[in-house]
Amino acid sequence: MSATATATTISLDPLDFLNVRSLLSDEERLVQETVRNYVRDRVTPFIGAAYEAGEPLAHLPLELGELNLLGMHLEGYGCAGASAVAYGIACMELEAGDSGVRSFCSVQGSLAMYAIWAFGSEEQKQRWLPEMAAGRAIGCFGLTEPDAGSNPAGMRTHARRDGDDWILNGSKMWITNGSVAEIAVVWARTDEGVRGFLVPAGTPGFAAPVMHGKLSLRASITSELTFDDVRLPADAVLPGVSSLRGPLSCLNEARYGIVWGAAGAARACYEAALDYSINRKQFDKPIAGFQLTQKKLSEMAVAVNTSTLLALHLGRLKDQGILRTEHVSIGKMHNVRAALEVARSARSVLGANGITLEYPVMRHANNLESVFTYEGTDEMHTLIVGQAVTGLSAFA
């Protein structure tokens, strides 16, 4: 049989137009099926109401822990030790449900847990990582400040030694999970460089009020962290790093998950638009049969598939140990931009129905506006790539 004849026998899946699934291993496909089924059963039926109420899904931490998704790419300490691609696939499927769900998983595993795993003492790892992997303890990651977002070197939070103890002062903003976290990983300036501190909830002088009024990521808790002469013991410090390399390496882990997550959000919007357009009739035929609608759907299909292929390629590079920060920046730039365009186009296909919570499109569109700027704004990633391709820094 000729190659051409063989190709014609391959069925075409509108939701996986380029058959990306065929590039995955059996283990990776199992992860995809498991997380997709979980999202279908335990996220999709409840996420609209949670978003409208501005509340997270309470069942999420323990159930994600039972699925071994929290810190799943880390080795030991109750973590699954999965590949980077498997972790990325999980992020894609979680964000197809909601960005807030993927964000919880990312902050827990790629920021808080990764910081302890990479830079913590053995005692710190044993104390926190198994509990966090199981979802019994929630963590948060305190780096961003009111006046130091894109420029972490401008942070004002500081810690000074007082005998064997440390005294921590300052504040952090836009902290996912902050108000429900049992442990906060907080980065601060010291005379010894930028250090990470483990600050347990309830420590005197430490407060984590919820930030209200959000129109995006409403099914996710966002908090402010404040530190007023917080006294911490010597063993609260992460001993493995004393520079910005610590928090920035954690951010790169989280940004990698966003590359995959944005592809998932785009796919969910495309799927909703495709299904709606086939079933919605105007002028006595499905709107999917009109040229302008088909143009929108075909462009969405291209965006979803190219984003997924880019994420997969970066995942393979990461598993080979050759993924660079600049690669992740290209992935976040492209995939979040593409997802936003897909969401907006999908909203137009759904017409007025597209602005309701009955469909996921406007919820994803609103969430993606946050994804566009968090974990490094689009502008910052643009300059990272620009410096890489020109050899010239355009940062102030």
Verbal overview:
It is a single chain. The protein is of the alpha+beta class. It has 3 domains: 13-133, Acyl-CoA dehydrogenase/oxidase, N-terminal domain (Butyryl-Coa Dehydrogenase, subunit A, domain 1, Orthogonal Bundle); 139-242, Butyryl-CoA Dehydrogenase, subunit A, domain 2; 246-390, Butyryl-CoA Dehydrogenase, subunit A, domain 3, CATH 1.20.140. Helix content is 51%, strand content 14%. It contains 11 helices and 9 strands. It has a 4-stranded antiparallel β-sheet, with helices on one face. Strands 1-4-5 form a 3-stranded mixed β-sheet. Strand 2 and strand 3 (165-176) form a beta hairpin. Helix 2 packs parallel to helix 4, helix 4 crosses helix 7 (245-279) and helix 9 packs antiparallel against helix 10. The longest helix is centred in the middle third of the chain and has 35 residues, at 245-279. The radius of gyration is 22 Å and the shape is globular. The chain starts with a helix and ends in a 6-residue tail after the last helix. The relative contact order is 0.12.
Annotate the secondary structure layout.
Layout: H1 3-8, H2 26-53, H3 60-66, H4 84-97, H5 99-119, H6 122-133, E1 139-142, E2 158-162, E3 165-176, E4 183-190, E5 193-200, E6 206-207, E7 222-232, H7 245-279, E8 281-282, E9 285-286, H8 291-319, H9 325-350, H10 361-371, H11 378-390
Parallel strand pairs: 1-4
Antiparallel strand pairs: 2-3, 3-7, 4-5, 6-7, 8-9
Helix pairs in contact: 2-4, 4-5, 4-7, 5-6, 5-7, 7-8, 7-9, 7-10, 8-9, 9-10, 9-11
